[in-house]
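Run log, item B.
One chain of 175 residues. Sequence copied directly from the ordering sheet:
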Amino acid sequence: MERRPLPSRLRTALSLALPSILWGALSACYTYIPLADGPVPRGREIRAYLTAAGRERVGEILPRDQRWLEGTVVRDEADGLLLRIERRAGPQNPTARALEQTIILRDGDVAAIEGRQMDGLRTGLVVGVAAVAGAAILGKILSGRGESGPGPGEGGGTDALIPAGLPPRPNSPPP
């Protein structure tokens, strides 16, 4: 069986849809849960909700109207938290790599802390939807393979076609 390339519209749809599906799948697998008081373990991914004083102190780092920072705990000290955060380039340059920055959040800067945790239900739903979408796309691709044009000697060639507005080639048979 001859292997035909995917139609260009399907290729375009897949190239646009797959990154969105992957991004949604990765972000849907996690949730944030409140952490108990006490030291936060090194390497824990957290979301720190900031007080008004904290937002004022780190205001240049925060996007407008955002009230939290997400990052990885580098060290939990007696008077604050050392947090490694990513700073995105922003919408003007979405393909640029994120820069990492380490900041200190003092006790008075933080109103609440939540820890990032895998969410089994969301992950299962995303995997299920991705499997159904993949099966539907694969079914569409495979069902399109059975539709082939006329074979050799069955007509349908383009030799007899003359583009509109052009005179016939010399020594060519009449249409």
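Observations after the first pass:
- The chain has two domains: 7-29+119-142, 32-118.
- Residues 32-118 form one domain.
Flagged for discussion on Thursday.
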